[in-house]
Design brief:
By secondary structure, the chain is of the alpha/beta class. It has two domains: about 5-135, Response regulator (Rossmann fold, 3-Layer(aba) Sandwich), CATH 3.40.50; about 150-250, Winged helix-like DNA-binding domain superfamily/Winged helix DNA-binding domain (Arc Repressor Mutant, subunit A), CATH 1.10.10.10. It has eleven helices and five strands. A five-stranded parallel beta sheet has the order 2-1-3-4-5, sandwiched between helices. β1, α1 and β2 (about 30-35) form a beta-alpha-beta unit. α2 (about 40-50) packs parallel to α3 (about 60-75) and α9 crosses α10 (about 190-205). The longest helix is centred in the middle third of the chain and has 15 residues, at about 135-150. The radius of gyration is 18 Å and the shape is globular.
Length: about 250
């Protein structure tokens, strides 16, 4: 059985030890390595090429969120689950969403719950959305984030080279909330092929992440809100990076 490979970033040694022991008993999840929250944590995590990274965004919270953001920016293929010491801060959840995290759990979550989250994300689910639906104030901020992008027409007139038809097809699937594995299955190609397309899309659009790319493509009418590419020929523009990060496309 091919195991889901996981990396942990946390300053809580007791938590790491307990989770390491729990995951060692799992037949489908493998803990590759772990790290404290430090300047080398991202490079170390990426060097192991895990499928999922668990990031503790406790103290210092900003450092933990920054690490999560760096991972999703530098390697969109890696899924990030953020771990928080408590579950009452709407702003913390919102910042976790903006970082590109696929999951959001409290540190007191049981090993079974954490393992279940890892498996769900591996199967293509974006479980952080469940948290948003239960937090009206967070949902409101998420919607406002998209509205802010919608009115940034002037600032968005600085896109790079238009995408190929295949890249638009991939981005259209991403706009519907599908993960790489699901897109690969729907298009009848390998997951690595989808990862390559996504890397090319981010480079061409100078986008921070797949969500940013989706918002830009929707703005220019290259794909529709239903996720299908537009029949309108995209205009070529040039310039530099302009827009800030957005939230997850599956929330639109």
């Amino acid at each position: 059985m091919e195991k889901i490979q996981v990396f942990i970033i946390s300053n809580n040694t007791l938590f790491r030890r307990g989770l390491r022991q729990a995951l060692s008993e799992s037949q489908d999840i493998e803990l590759l390595a772990e790290s404290d929250i430090n300047d080398n944590a991202v490079d170390l995590a990426l060097s192991f090429a895990p499928e999922t990274v668990l990031v503790d965004i406790g103290l210092p919270m900003l450092n933990g969120l920054n690490l999560a953001r760096q991972i999703t920016q530098r390697s969109p293929a890696i899924s990030v689950i953020v771990l928080t010491p408590y579950n009452g801060d709407d702003n913390q959840l919102f910042q976790a969403i903006k970082s590109g995290a696929a999951g959001y759990l409290t540190m007191d979550a049981g090993a079974d719950e954490i393992a279940s989250a890892i498996r769900k994300i591996h199967q293509g689910e974006f479980i952080i959305n469940e948290m948003v639906l239960s937090r009206p104030r967070v949902a409101e901020k998420v919607l406002k984030q998209f509205q802010d992008f919608a009115v940034m027409g002037g600032a968005m007139e600085t896109l790079a080279t238009p995408l190929t038809a295949r890249e638009l097809e991939v981005l259209g699937q991403a706009a519907q909330g599908f993960m790489n594995k699901q897109i690969a299955f729907k298009l009848g190609v390998s997951e690595q092929t989808i990862k390559n397309h996504m890397t090319s899309i981010l480079r061409k659009l100078d986008a921070n992440d797949r969500t940013h790319a989706v918002v830009l493509a929707l703005h220019y009418g290259w794909i529709s809100s239903r996720g299908k590419e537009s029949t309108t020929e995209p205009a070529k523009t040039n310039g530099t990076k302009s827009s800030p990060r957005s939230v997850n496309a599956s929330l639109s």
